[in-house]
Amino acid sequence: MIYGIGTDLCDVRRIAATLARKSDRFAEKVLGPDELKVFHARRAKVESRGIRFLATRFSAKEAFSKAVGMGLHMPMTWRSCEILNERSGKPYIRLHGELAAWFAQRNLVAHVTVTDETDYVASFVVVETAATFPATALQP
């Protein structure tokens, strides 16, 4: 059953301006440890790729906070929610600390997708209650 849906549209130029004004402190406030590694690697190769990565993560976290219905209030914090990629490129959400415990307590599962263009990024998150079927119910 769907618990919540969140979407966000973000102007990459706004993220670039904030990053220029606040330097890496902005990225360090928004990104978790594994996201920061990707951000620095992408930015070192091509500045705009790093900025778009930061913008997609900012947007996805906004969408996630809307889907769980709490905005950016405890236990939801920027760094307690990471948007990472599987080897295939598919994005997924990894939660930490109190937010992970809050999420697990409610037996929730999150699905995320992000997209980016030159000036805009968009994110969509669906949070649902995890199915609790007996293993035999899944067999044909």
Automatic annotation (TrEMBL):
InterPro entries named in the record: 4-PPantetheinyl_Trfase_dom, 4-PPantetheinyl_Trfase_dom_sf, ACPS, Ppantetheine-prot_Trfase_dom
SUPFAM superfamilies: 4'-phosphopantetheinyl transferase
Entry GO terms, CC: cytoplasm
Pfam family, one: ACPS
Keyword Ribosomal protein in annotation: no
MF terms (GO), sorted A to Z: holo-[acyl-carrier-protein] synthase activity; magnesium ion binding
Subcellular location, record wording: Cytoplasm
Domain 4'-phosphopantetheinyl transferase: 4-123
Primary subcellular site in the record, as a coarse category: cytoplasm
Listed cofactors: Mg(2+)
Alphabetic keyword roster: Cytoplasm, Fatty acid biosynthesis, Fatty acid metabolism, Lipid biosynthesis, Lipid metabolism, Magnesium, Metal-binding, Transferase
E.C. numbers: 2.7.8.7
GO BP annotations listed: fatty acid biosynthetic process
UniProt catalytic activity: apo-[ACP] + CoA = holo-[ACP] + adenosine 3',5'-bisphosphate + H(+)
Presence of the UniProt keyword Metal-binding in the record: yes
Source organism superkingdom: Bacteria
Role summary: Transfers the 4'-phosphopantetheine moiety from coenzyme A to a Ser of acyl-carrier-protein.
Stated family: Belongs to the P-Pant transferase superfamily. AcpS family.
Protein name (Swiss-Prot/TrEMBL): Holo-[acyl-carrier-protein] synthase
Gene that encodes it: acpS
